[in-house]
Design a protein that fits this description.
The chain is mostly helical. Helix 2 runs antiparallel to helix 3, helix 4 runs antiparallel to helix 5 and helix 5 packs antiparallel against helix 6. The chain is elongated and about 55 Å long. The model has no long low-confidence stretch (mean pLDDT about 90).
């Protein structure tokens, strides 16, 4: 979101600080709240039932951002996007902890944590490159189908680990 703030602010007739708040702050706050919601839900209902619909909704909301007509709409959609993005993070980390043998759990959690951190850096490079070459709407427009494909792939491939009585 950082590379998009200035251009979105200009295109929608607002300053870059208002666009930064709509694009970044709303997402970050909702993402944190989402962990508190989706972590316990994935404990109760399983990882896959949270991962698959979470990614599907994330794809739809991300596609909606490509068509957003105002900064207010962007703020609302980024809030929803942050909330449902947390469904993946919370459930994926728990899934790795359950699905991998104890010997490989630290490696799996390390790999996911590295992917999350790398995504923050690579996402900025992606959004700047796509935003400059195709326009800011394409940043979201290209990401939406990728998220939908990921949702289908997880639905088809992921095996839900057996549930323990502790849930």
């Amino acid at each position: 979101a950082i590379p998009l703030a200035e251009v979105v602010g200009k295109v929608l007739g607002r300053g870059s600080s208002a666009a930064a708040a709509a694009l970044g702050t709303t997402y970050a706050l909702a993402y944190g709240i989402g962990f508190l919601i989706f972590g316990p839900l994935s404990d109760r209902y399983g990882r896959k039932p949270i991962l698959v619909p979470g990614l599907a909704v994330l794809a739809l909301v991300t596609g909606g951002l490509a068509a957003a007509s105002s900064l207010h709409v962007i703020a609302v959609l980024r809030t929803v996007q942050g909330l449902v993005a947390a469904s993946f993070s919370a459930a994926a980390l728990a899934y790795v902890g359950e699905a991998l043998p104890p010997r490989w759990r630290p490696t799996g959690i390390g790999a996911i944590s590295t992917a999350f951190l790398s995504a923050g850096i690579l996402g900025q490079v992606y959004s700047q490159a796509v935003g400059e070459s195709l326009g800011w709407r394409w940043v979201f427009g290209l990401a939406a189908p990728a998220l939908l494909i990921a949702s289908f792939a997880i639905a088809m491939i992921l095996i839900e680990p057996p549930h323990s009585d502790e849930r």
